[in-house]
Every structure is written in C-alpha cells, then in structure tokens.
User: What shape does this take?
Amino acid sequence: MQRHTPNWKTNLVAILTLVVIIVVLDQVTKFWITSSLQLGQSVPVLADFFHLTLVRNTGMAFGLLSCSNIPFKAALVTFLSTAAMAAVTYYAFRSAQHERLTRFGLIFILGGALGNIIDRVRLGYVVDFVDIFYRDMHWPAFNVADSCICIGVGLLLIDSFRTAPRAEMAPQAEAAAAASRGDS
Assistant: This one.
C-alpha cells in the first residue's frame, strides 16, 4: 500500500487558518480576563464547581515547575515549548489527508502551544483563569490554549485506538487470505 503524500500548500493554508483561530480565541479570552479581574481575584460562574480566577503560571502545563526557582526557567520553559511545537508542526505536515483526527489533534496542540508561547515571550508567564474544583479536589487553573492541547491529545489517542488494531491485523489478515487461496 502506497503512502499518500499530502499537498503541502493545501495543508499549510488549512493548518495555519485553524491554528490562527485557536490562537486568537486564546489571546482574546486572556485579554478579557486580564482586563476584567485583578491577579488572584475569583468570580463564581457555577458555585462550588467553576470560577474565573486570574492566575500567572510561570511553569509548564497545569503549573508544573511553577514553584521551582530554576535559573533561566522562563527561557527553558519557552525553549521546551517551542521544541515541542516544532515537532508537532513537522508531524502535522507529514500526516496524510485521510488521518483527519490526527491532523485536527495536531492542529489543536499546535494552536494551544502557540497561544501559551505568545504569553511566555510577551509576559514571562502564562495567563490562566479557568478554575475547576469539587469539594477538596482542585484542578490547577488553565486556559483556552491548555484546553486545546488536551483536546488535541485526546483526538490523537482516539485515532491511535481506531487505527492500531487495523495496523496489527493487516499482516494476519493477509496471511489468512493467502492461506485460503492456497498460497504458501
């Protein structure tokens, strides 16, 4: 079976359009929150479950490394995020047209990563504001970009579960077909 080579110009326009939409949505919501709330201020949306709370995240996803004082932490986190974004970009352009869930997953990851990198470069931290909790359980604050990254990873996982069994079964199915034809 021959691998389909995607048209890079069509991919570029489609990928960039969707990435720009995600980045704009992320940046607009962050602007709105920073214009509406003071740092640490919390506004209930759904009592005892969901608040809008303005937080500065100097670490990575969901506050990882936020409390550590690593020299050049902002530069290190930005570098790691940029390297991951470059790998995702490469993979997005290499994915075949028919791998739609994979392509959308990569686009969501790319848009989310870019939204957070813009914050890191511009501000030195990422603006987080979605505050979800239930009783004593509290999820770290996040934003639209983080949500897009999670959606993208979810789409990649779904696609990997959908395609993995077919890829594993292909040699077995071919061998069974050959045996039924009497091929050895």
Observations:
- The first helix runs from residue 8 to 36.
- Residues 8-172 form one domain.
- The radius of gyration is 21 Å.
- The chain has a mean pLDDT of 81.
